[in-house]
Amino acid sequence: MFARFDDLPxxxxxRLALGWLARAQVEVAVLRLDLVDPLISGNKAFKLLExxxxxxxxxxxxxISLGGAYSNHLHALAAAGKRFGFAxxxxxxxxxxDTPTVRDLEAFGMHLHWLGYGGYRERNAPGFWAPWQAQYPxxxxxxxxxxxxxxxRGCALIVEQARQQLAxxxxxxxxxxxxxxxxxxxxxxxxxxxxxxHPVYGALAVPADxxxxxxxxxxxxxxxxxxxxxxxxxxxxxxxxxxxxAFIAASEAESGVPLEPLYTGKALLALQGQVEAGxxxxxxxxxxxxxxxxxxxxGFA
Length: 301
Prior knowledge:
Layout (H helix, E strand, L loop, with lengths): L12 E3 L3 H6 L2 E6 L10 H15 L4 E6 L4 H13 L2 E6 L7 H8 L3 E4 L1 H6 L8 H6 L4 E2 L6 H8 L1 H7 L12 E6 L3 H10 L5 E5 L7 H9 L6 E5 L10 H14 L8 H13 L8 E6 L11
Parallel strand pairs: 2-10, 3-4, 3-6, 4-5, 7-8, 7-10, 8-9
Antiparallel strand pairs: 1-2
Helix pairs in contact: 2-7, 3-4, 7-9, 8-9, 9-10
């Protein structure tokens, strides 16, 4: 747990022991962002970092953002607001729901506004924020999922954390990154930090038409060859099937690393597919980014 929002603890880097990796002679180490903090967890802490710094500099009375009824982003934001003493408001997709995440948001003191599905679809439209800025004057507005340039800039720090710990897993270098991609913000941050030194592989947890590639290009520039995207959505966002749930259970039992079905589970299953297809030569060393989100598992109990 960290006591200042801009003092992020070091996420441990751990070797991942799985039979299909050993058979392919591919080495993977997991950067456990899920262990950064029990509440302000995963990549969400990094995506919020620069937003909170800007809000503090502007002396904003609060921070407002968007998400769904199981949103890891809103959960981290609300927890940060409670711990560090600033007000928060959440604009939620759909109609009022009673979920474990929503109950946490209310307990953390976040003001909740349910937009319906049509209203939420307008979140990228010109003028969307105007009525909310009028209702919450001076508040800092954070894009969905902590996205945008500020979110990517905070995620660039993730690369530095991993490089500091290579010796702890017996490595003197690595060959690339593998992570789940939802908005592409974290992926763009890694691309910016790597500057072409190592490729960043994104396992798409959302369908290809969600604009992740365009978002990464907008944030990181035309970094040709610096990253690649692979479909891991299994037919759509939040689509969970028996093969995925069985894979997660088996992987957790074998490796001891907890996963969730929306991002990390899908990303690791997609990596298995690429490894077994021969996409990586023996001796390849990859850093798998555990993006957290374990609180969302409660929706799949």
